[in-house]
Amino acid sequence: MSQSPYHRVLIKLSGEALAPKTGYGIDPDSVDFIADRIQQVAQLGVQVAVVIGGGNLWRGEIGTARGMDRTTADHMGMIATVMNGLALRQALERKGVDTRVMTAIEMNSVAEPYIRLRALRHLDKGRVIIFSGGTGNPFFTTDSGAALRASEIEADIIVKATKVDGVYDRDPNKDPNAVRYTDLTFQKVITDNLKVMDMTAFTMCQENDIPILVVNFWAEGDLVRAIQGDNSVGTIIHN
Fold it and tell me: 3-state class of 238 per DSSP?
């Protein structure tokens, strides 16, 4: 029986979450930590999908700044997300969590192609799905990929994994008097120009009525408490 008001969640992680403190790359300890957090959510009886960025391995703006065309740079970023997905899958499988990597770019020898009905079947069987390859198209961020996949699988909520415990009216790192919102509307975020996701992704969530939960992924217990409906942690954004 589920210990959460949510039946199906999609967790959005930045690629930098997998990086070592020294900079670029994949840190096995960070991957194991992330796998532990995802396992805790799955143990609540919730269906879990994950989208990871690729910024720890490649950032497209670095290439474009040196004259690379945007399409090529974005395709390289999509491939980086597949590498991150494979690393996370291995960590989850070692912990006994049945996991599949599905990618929008066909790589049949390393990951399953993304097929919506197959993804839903995996989720119904209790498997964690890692969606890689973004949307499969350049000019879209992994935030947009997360919003698209969440819409397609009819996720109840997107969990935006961050290193702050929610959305604030001001930067809490610069202003100790900053106030954390527990509850926001999409319109309030737009009106106050609060940075949550890129606007394409944010609009897609608003139009498809998918709430966004911003929570400190690294704070012990916060992720599980937020997904269990505890509004003393994180910020939830909805229509």
Answer: strand
The pLDDT of residue 1 is 55
Domains of the chain: 8-238 (3.40.1160.10)
Contact predicate 31/70, CB 8 Å: no
Distances (CA, A) of 23 to 50, 85, 193: 23, 19, 30
Question: 152: closest CA among 104, 98, 217, 112?
Answer: 104
Contact between residue 8 and residue 14 where contact means Cβ atoms under 8 Å apart: no
Q: How far is CA 218 from CA 30, 153, 188, 237, in A?
A: 10, 26, 26, 20
**Pairwise pLDDT comparison (177 vs 115), residue with the higher score:** 115
DSSP string, 111-179: SEEP-HHHHHHHHHTT-EEEEESTTSSTT--HHHHHHHHHHHTT-SEEEEEESSSSEESS-TTT-TT--
Strand, coil or helix: 209: coil
Rounded to two decimals, what is the model's pTM?
0.94
SS3 assignment, position 214 = strand
**CA 73, CA 69: separation in Å to the nearest integer?**
6
**Among 134, 107, 131, which residue's Cα sits nearest to residue 48?**
131
* C-alpha dist (Å) from residue 70 to 63, 96, 198, 201, 227: 8, 39, 18, 19, 37
Q: Which DSSP category does 7 fall into? A: S
Query: 14 burial class (0-12, 13-18, 19+ CB within 10 angstroms)?
Result: buried
